[in-house]
Design goal:
SsuA/THI5; three-stranded antiparallel sheet; NMT1/THI5; 10 strands; about 325 residues; five-stranded mixed sheet; alpha/beta; signal; globular
């Protein structure tokens, strides 16, 4: 799973281009009778981050709520512009996309955190001998050339007593990371533990290791990646649709936490081209990580938003303050 890492400049370019608006094919109303048509834009290929949505679809909970929900492919430039233009109703974005989008005046709003903590990792072949961040000295990072990538990796290395100037950064873009490492084009990359690392380790039986970001929150912040998002316009004009969509979606994720096999089965049913083995190991892995014990699914903390916004400002990813209270809301999560 390749990460969307958009800097402010890239976001602005995408806004100006407007080409992404054609990527989703517009409204997806198939004439579902009295049902209200709703579109949900994925952030990548169907995967276990989307479990709750696929379970709700499979069990008919959206239709029971009067909604005809369709999933659509992600737009080339990201989800924010499509939501803001009203070409999709809901989507999936990470905080490092939402905050720059808000800074550029794109009115997207986070409705729920898909998982409580960042599942990002730096992963590598074990033959590289990497066991801690300072071991990245002398290694080559392959990524998208983003400001945030360089900032995070440099801080991790420095925090562990290493010299970040000895890490080499190369821009490789959207490539097969495992193949790139095996051919010595680069030594480590930034991925999601629940997908890329599990696929390499559990499905392809590769001897890989990883440094999980969540293990180094003494050096870098924890943040939400990803979240379910919508637009300010959707909240203002169709709050009943937002509430119904979220109620059914929350039910789906609650099932995914209790029954990971049901999550894998629902995604396979909705996206039969998926890798069943990967879905099963990934669904089991995520089932205990969606929320911390005792917390309801989806709840966002203001402190996380404030802290990560300040971090992006220091990293140079945004050059202006944003109203964090307008960037997210817990209003549409069921009160239980």
């Amino acid at each position: 799973m390749k990460r969307w890492i958009l800097g402010a400049a890239a976001l602005a370019a995408a806004l100006l281009a407007g080409a992404v608006l054609t990527a989703c094919g517009g409204d997806d109303d198939d004439g579902g009778g009295k049902l209200t048509p709703v579109t949900f834009m994925l952030n990548w290929t169907p995967n276990t981050y989307h479990s709750g949505v696929y379970i709700a679809l499979d069990r008919g909970w959206y239709r029971d709520a009067g909604l005809d929900v369709k999933t659509i492919e992600p737009a080339a430039g990201g989800t924010a512009q499509v939501l803001a233009a009203g070409k999709a109703d809901f989507g999936v974005m990470a905080q490092e996309e939402i905050i720059p989008a808000r800074a550029e005046g794109v009115p997207v709003v986070a409705l729920a955190a898909l998982i409580q903590h960042n599942d990002s990792s730096l992963y590598f072949l074990k033959s590289e001998g990497i066991t801690r961040p300072r071991d990245l000295e002398g290694k080559t990072y392959g990524g998208f050339g983003g400001v945030l990538e360089r900032q995070l990796i440099s801080e991790l290395v420095k925090c562990d007593g290493g010299d970040p100037s000895k890490v080499k950064f190369v821009e490789v873009g959207n490539v097969d990371y495992l193949a790139g490492m095996e051919s010595n084009r680069f030594d480590f990359v930034w991925v999601f533990e629940f997908w890329d690392v599990l696929r390499a380790r559990e499905v392809e039986k590769k001897d890989v290791g990883s440094l999980k970001f969540i293990d180094y929150t003494n050096c870098i912040p924890d943040w939400y990646t990803p979240l379910i998002v919508t637009s300010e316009q959707m909240i203002k004009e169709k709050p009943d649709v937002v509430r119904k969509f979220m109620e059914a979606t929350v039910r789906g994720y609650e099932v995914a936490m209790k029954d990971p096999q049901a999550a894998a089965d629902a995604i396979m049913k909705g996206a039969p081209e998926s890798d069943r083995k990967l879905l099963e190991v990934s669904a089991k892995y995520l089932s205990t990580r969606y929320v911390d014990p005792g917390r309801p699914w989806g709840l966002q903390d203001r402190e996380v938003w404030v802290t990560f916004t300040q971090y992006l400002r220091r990293a140079g990813l945004i050059d202006k303050e944003i109203d964090v209270d307008a960037a997210f809301t817990n209003e549409f999560l069921p009160k239980r």
